[in-house]
Structures are given as C-alpha cells and as structure tokens.
Amino acid sequence: xxxxxxxxxxxxxxxxxxxxxxxxxxxxxxxxxxxxxxxxxxxxxxxxxxxxxxxxxxxxxxxxxxxxxxxxxxxxxxxxxxxxxxxxxxxxxxxxxxxxxxxxxxxxxxxxxxxxxxxxxxxxxxxxxxxxxxxxxxxxxxxxxxxxxxxxxxxxxxxxxxxxxxxxxxxxxxxxxxxxxxxxxxxxxxxxxxxxxxxxxxxxxxxxxxxxxxxxxx
Length: 218
Description:
Layout: E1 2-6, H1 10-21, E2 26-30, H2 33-42, E3 47-51, H3 59-68, E4 74-79, H4 84-92, E5 97-100, H5 105-119, E6 127-129, E7 132-135, E8 140-143, E9 146-147, H6 152-163, H7 171-178, H8 189-201, E10 208-210, E11 214-216
Parallel strand pairs: 1-2, 1-3, 3-4, 4-5
Antiparallel strand pairs: 6-7, 7-8, 8-9, 10-11
Helix pairs in contact: 2-3, 6-8
C-alpha cells in the first residue's frame, strides 16, 4: 500500500515509517498538516496515519479536508490523549480508526492492514495466479511449490501485479503504489525490479511486458 505518516516528532515519524516499510509498504512522511495536505493532493494514499495535534494545520482539519473531498483514503488517527471523549471526537471528524500513544508497532501494523483492506477492492487473503502463491500476511511467495525469497520492492510489485487479476499494470501505477515520493519517476527502478522478479520466479517467464501499456501476469 501507499501510506502517508503525518507526525511532528521526527524520531517517532521515522520509526513508524521504517516499521511500515518493513511490511513492504511505500511510505511518505510529513511533519505538519500543511505538508500533509500538499502530499495528499499529489498522491493517492491508501492510508494516512495522522497525528491529531499537528503544527501549521491541525490534524482535525486534515481529516476534515479528506472527508470533504470524498477521498477513499482511510485515516488512522494518533494522539497522546487517551480519554474516551477525545477518541469519539476524532472518529466524529471522519477518522476510520483511533490509536492512542504510546502504542505497540505490531498493533499499528494490524490496524493499517485492516484499513487498507477497506480502502481498496476486496482481495482474497492469499493471491494465486499462474502457479504463484503470495501470502501478504506471512510475506511468503511460492512458485509451483518452490519458495521464492523476494526483497520488499519485489514483493510489493508482485502483489500489485497479482491484484490486477491478469490486467496490465503501468509503470506509473507501480511507482505510485510500491515506491515513495523520493523516487525519481524517470529512473529505471520499475524495469530493474521487474527483471529481478522474473529471474527469481524462474522459467517459464510469467511476467509479461505489454509495450506502451505496462506489465501483467496472464
């Protein structure tokens, strides 16, 4: 998934981002509400992990803007306030879930994954096609019963190709979902990742290139 972490404490923001990247997500970071709104206007995020007490533009206003725009992006609101009234207020603004600080990263991952399922069309718990079996929760991939070790990016790209259910996925779509905003769109990152993925999946080749369209697994 593509996730935006909005947190004004740099150490916490960095730790949350790295943890989520460990789950093979593409993660961007913003440290204030204005920067968050700017990124939301450019990228299509599946989930925004949103601190409520933000500088420049308050987290409540960021949440309101997402709701007013009719965005399918799901919001997990974070706050140091653990009172029930604060949780109710956050949910009333349109947040989809609420997590008080301090929190366990494992719980954060579980809540983000659950929200991601609601942000996108439903997919089976295990993705299978052309002899490939991908388990998103165990982060395991098999081809014809053979375990295939993949890097985070390779796993993310394969997930998007399998979710497409035989349709072609453009390089731009793969960049949007599997890479963060620091990736140069004019690099060969997607092509090189596809080459490595093909090599690891083995013969016969299963990822096809559709010239001028993208990549697909038929």
